[in-house]
Amino acid sequence: MASDTLRGETKTCPKHNVASERIFAGLDYLKRKSPNISTFSMQGILLWTTNKTSEYLNACDQKTRDTLITKAMKNRKKVADLYQQKRKDIEQNWLKAKTTRVKAKERAIVADTVTNTENVLKTCGYICKSSCDVEKLTVGKTDTEKREALLAQIKYYKCINRGVVKGSLFYVTSGGKPSSQLASNLKEIVDKLNDDCAMWWKVLVTKMKLAPQKKVSAWN
Q1: End-of-domain residue from the set 68, 100, 132
Q2: pLDDT at res. 191
Q3: Which span out of 75-84, 88-97, 134-143 was modeled with the highest average pLDDT?
């Protein structure tokens, strides 16, 4: 049960979200009516409408109305500068948070790569680079040992894959795929990465051949 303090603090809170929905409806209308309108201008229009500023000014006498309008005009630049500064602060904080997330993700990828590399070397003794390596990996092993070795290789390649190999080849169902299916998937993974690597080298060599060569004097 809510305490008396909490009840007192929330007594004036609205019991519905009609006001916020009305503001979002106003934002949607302004964006469709004036696609190039700034956020600052939309804020001013919505505050003017929501607070019923026009009705308040009309209820004031002429002198008070002129004083308020003059004061608002003088303060416009100050308010605009505060808005721009707040916007810059938000953008900087967002970029800082994004950079932190990216660095954390990169560290996690490196740690995952190191862990899987150590595991595959400990389990298998080497990393499969061809279909022949995959065949040799399963020779003289029990089905349990084959599965453990194949999974170690697949997990290693999963952590270094950068979109070259489709994700379905790395899936391991809860029931467990048979060793033959895991071996087939590993062969396809290795072949695809080898093809991608060969293509990358071919492009690099072509670019080096087409690039203008700088003449080097024997006396330099």
Answers
A1: 100
A2: 85
A3: 88-97
Same domain, yes or no: 90 and 28 = yes
Distance CA 32, CA 27 (A): 9
Query: How far is the CA of 10 from the CAs of 15, 20, 67, 138, in angstroms?
Result: 10, 17, 36, 68
Residue 65 lies in a domain: yes
Which domain-ending residue is among 53, 78, 100?
A: 100
CA atoms of 154 and 174, how far apart (whole Å) = 16
Residue 145 within a domain? yes
Candidates 135, 117, 145, 114; CA nearest to 191 is: 135
Range of the domain at 93: 20-100
Report the number of distinct structural domains present in the chain: 2
149 touches 124 (CB < 8 A)? yes
Radius of gyration of the chain, Cα coordinates, nearest whole angstrom: 33
Of residues 136 and 179, the one with the higher pLDDT is 136
Residue 103 reports pLDDT greater than 80: yes
CB atoms within 10 A of CB 68: 14
91 and 129 in a single domain? The answer is no
Q: With bands split at pLDDT 50, 70 and 90, how would you rate the model's confidence at 199?
A: low
**Which own/partner contact pairs does 109-114 have at CB distance under 8 Å and 24+ positions apart?**
109/159, 112/159, 113/159, 113/160
pLDDT at 7 over 80: yes
**Tokens 């590399």 sit on residue:** 117
93 and 122 within one domain: no
